[in-house]
Amino acid sequence: MHCVWSARGGYHAIPKLTFPGGALIGCSAGFLNSIKIKGSHTAMKSGMLAAEAAYAALTSTGLEAVAVSGVIDEAEPVVDISSAFILNGLEPWTLGNDKPDSAKTKPAKDFTPIDYPKPDGVLTFDLLSNLQRSGTNHADQPSHLRIKAGKEDVPSTESFPVFAGPEQRFCPAKVYEYTDGSEAGANGVPQLVINAQNCVHCKCCSIKMPQEYINWTVPEGGGGPA
């Protein structure tokens, strides 16, 4: 079993629960009750449901069995936990989320670039120094970060020219970089470089890249942060 961070986005953030060979259950799926700060009961219940459904294989989003089990009944009343008023889910509104994060990034031209101070080496450090301390290791294994088929041109035609290459800023491990376009065959167009060996498995790239062009796959055993 691979340990992951607990998802606390609540009802609206419940993801597709199944994937080839497994399923997300408990806090990893977002079944934590944020008001009560309790999730053991929903973790056990969703685990039982996953076990019961394993034989027939979970289908679609995997929410069908969860919906009739009481787990959704636990999550839905606290759907708007961040709202100013908490009325046990009876508010006359709800916080909508009608499009993926990748579609919410705005063009770089609408913003003023931020001039961040350089790391001082005392209280603040550069990304690669912090990366070294993480013990990340992906030695002698194929890249687990690949551009999806049919989207090979997205980095050079959309991500960089329209959004100024956000992946080179939000990635905490400097996995994504753009060249200056001076290399042979680039014709002056900055090209994406993927340093998959640096990845610390935050998976931000799989949901925030323009058109979700990166296919994040599980690395081979032993890879990632120590």
Automatic annotation (TrEMBL):
Q: What class of enzyme is it?
A: oxidoreductase
Q: Which GO terms describe its molecular function?
A: 4 iron, 4 sulfur cluster binding; electron-transferring-flavoprotein dehydrogenase activity; metal ion binding
Ranges where the 4Fe-4S ferredoxin-type domain occurs: 190-219
Q: What is its EC number?
A: 1.5.5.1
Q: What are the names of the required cofactors?
A: FAD; [4Fe-4S] cluster
Cellular-component GO terms for this entry: mitochondrial inner membrane
Keywords of the record, alphabetical order, are: Electron transport, FAD, Flavoprotein, Iron, Iron-sulfur, Membrane, Metal-binding, Mitochondrion, Mitochondrion inner membrane, Oxidoreductase, Transit peptide, Transport, Ubiquinone
Primary subcellular site in the record, as a coarse category: mitochondrion
Could you tell me what the cofactor note in this record states?
A: Binds 1 [4Fe-4S] cluster.
Q: Which domain of life is it from?
A: Eukaryota
Q: Which Gene3D superfamilies match?
A: 3.30.70.20, FAD/NAD(P)-binding domain (3.50.50.60)
Q: Where in the cell is it found?
A: Mitochondrion inner membrane
Read off the InterPro entries from this record.
4Fe4S_Fe-S-bd, ETF-QO, ETF-QO/FixX_C, FAD/NAD-bd_sf
Reaction(s) catalysed by this chain, per the record, are: a ubiquinone + reduced [electron-transfer flavoprotein] = a ubiquinol + oxidized [electron-transfer flavoprotein] + H(+)
The similarity annotation says: Belongs to the ETF-QO/FixC family.
- State the function annotated in the UniProt record: Accepts electrons from ETF and reduces ubiquinone.
**Which protein are we looking at?**
Electron transfer flavoprotein-ubiquinone oxidoreductase
Q: What is the lineage of its organism?
A: Eukaryota, Sar, Stramenopiles, Oomycota, Saprolegniomycetes
